[in-house]
């Protein structure tokens, strides 16, 4: 009996040691070491799991490439799953701050989850840098800056401005029509409004500015009107599934306008009716800049695939945070956020980044074209 109990005790001890060893791939910090904990929050399960995995990969790779240390500080990471759910994201942020005592958070993917995290992080004076949430309200509350909140992606209206500039300067368009989802009060309406304003201020004419509802599938009435007006370009700032449906019906109405959209068009395959269309995006793996070539090669070597735009933005977000810790050489979130705010021309993969007064990056935008069912890099445009 004594021998049996001894074996059981040793087995439990061994399992505990294994569990502890599996919880982190990093060596434990020495008692005298300075340590700073940073958290990752993303959808590692649920409807956005694929994107969550690629963003987690990017986060881990950025920390790994730093050697797990910046300045005098050893970096320890805690990774949590928000399942693309706002309540789960809030719980994750609370756990990271209250229990893990993290000083900064990278995340999350969608607006609804990132907004929840931003409220909690800013309220607790913890630095947060979003990777892919483009809604302006992430860094603002009632128009007032959330001092501890930043993002690596440009905001929704920003790319509407770039799309208008591309239509006027590169496509030599003089007239445009806009169709957008008015129930999407952030993404669609933001892109549509800024495209219209920028296009008209620069001398272009908007011939039609129409909207539809989320569940609409028949756009005949609006497209019949646009067909008569014969615009040079048709701006469709909705996500790819809806934009491709409108494009199909537009071609059936003999509308020959060039289609233009936003990053919601980012896809791996395109309908034939989207052929020749252009859209703004955060990143292209075919961009010839050295930073892009190195990043794509490093990610492919590590994970066996080409990184998508979401992974790239998480990679940039993580490196921006690590750089701020390095520059400030501090574990104090107040000092770190001041270093982030002062960032100028940081050589990120998605372009040189500086921050404006609202914590948004000032950086170039990639323009892509749909060719033979794939997206092809065209150019990069500065604001």
Summary tags:
elongated; 383 residues; disordered N terminus; Rossmann fold; six-stranded mixed beta sheet; alpha/beta; single chain; seven-stranded mixed beta sheet
Percent range of helical residues: 40-55%
Mean pLDDT, as a whole number? 91
CATH homologous superfamily descriptor of the largest domain: Response regulator
Q: Helix count?
A: 11
Sheet-strand content, in percent, reads 15-25%
Number of strands: 18
Globular, elongated, flat, extended or rod-shaped: what is the shape? elongated
The CATH class of the largest domain turns out to be Alpha Beta
Strand order of the largest sheet: 10-9-11-12-13-17-18
Whole-number total of structural domains: 2
Looking at the overall shape, the CATH architecture of the largest domain is 3-Layer(aba) Sandwich
Low-confidence stretches: 1-26
- The helix-and-strand class reads alpha/beta
Structural Rg: 23 Å
Would you list the SSEs in sequence order as H and E? HEHEEHEHEEEEHEHEHEHEEHHHEEEEE
Largest sheet: 7 strands, mixed
* CATH topology label of the largest domain: Rossmann fold
Query: First CA to last CA: what distance?
Result: 77 Å
Give a short summary of the structure:
The chain has two domains: 33-154 and 289-363, 3-Layer(aba) Sandwich (Rossmann fold), CATH 3.40.50; 157-281, Rossmann fold (3-Layer(aba) Sandwich), CATH 3.40.50.2300.
What does this structure look like?
Helices cover 42% and strands 22% of the residues. The chain has 383 residues and is an alpha/beta fold. β2 and β3 form a beta hairpin. α2 packs parallel to α10 and α5 packs parallel to α6. The N terminus is likely disordered.
């Amino acid at each position: 009996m004594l021998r049996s109990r001894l074996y059981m005790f040793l087995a439990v001890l061994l399992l505990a040691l294994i569990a502890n060893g599996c919880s982190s791939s990093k060596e434990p910090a020495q008692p005298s070491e300075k340590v700073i904990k940073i958290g990752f929050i993303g959808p590692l399960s649920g409807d956005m799991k694929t994107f969550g995995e690629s963003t987690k990969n990017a986060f881990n790779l950025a920390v790994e490439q730093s050697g797990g240390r910046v300045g005098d500080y050893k970096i320890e990471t805690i990774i949590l799953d928000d399942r693309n759910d706002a309540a789960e994201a809030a719980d994750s942020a609370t756990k990271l701050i209250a229990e893990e005592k993290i000083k900064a958070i990278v995340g999350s993917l969608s607006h609804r989850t990132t907004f929840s995290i931003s409220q909690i992080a800013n309220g607790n004076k913890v630095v947060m840098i979003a990777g892919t949430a483009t809604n302006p309200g992430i860094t603002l509350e009632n128009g007032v800056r959330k001092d501890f909140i930043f993002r690596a992606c440009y905001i929704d209206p920003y790319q509407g401005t770039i799309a208008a500039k591309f239509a006027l300067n590169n496509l030599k368009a003089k007239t445009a029509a806009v169709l957008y989802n008015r129930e999407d009060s952030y993404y669609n309406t933001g892109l549509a409004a800024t495209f219209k304003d920028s296009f008209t201020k620069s001398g272009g004419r908007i011939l039609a500015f129409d909207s539809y509802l989320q569940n609409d599938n028949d756009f005949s009435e609006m497209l019949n009107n646009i067909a008569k007006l014969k615009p040079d370009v048709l701006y469709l700032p909705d996500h790819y599934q809806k934009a491709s449906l409108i494009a199909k019906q537009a071609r059936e109405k003999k509308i020959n306008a060039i289609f233009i959209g936003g990053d919601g068009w980012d896809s791996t395959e395109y309908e034939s009716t989207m052929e020749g269309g252009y859209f703004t995006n955060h990143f292209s793996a075919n961009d010839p800049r050295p930073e892009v070539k190195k990043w794509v090669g490093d990610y492919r070597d590590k994970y066996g695939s080409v990184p998508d735009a979401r992974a790239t933005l998480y990679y940039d977000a993580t490196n921006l945070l690590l750089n701020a810790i390095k520059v400030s050489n501090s574990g104090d979130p107040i000092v770190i956020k001041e270093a982030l705010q002062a960032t100028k021309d940081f050589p990120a993969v998605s372009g040189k980044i500086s921050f404006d007064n609202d914590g948004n990056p000032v950086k170039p935008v990639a323009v892509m074209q749909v060719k033979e069912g794939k997206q092809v890099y065209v150019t990069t445009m500065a604001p």
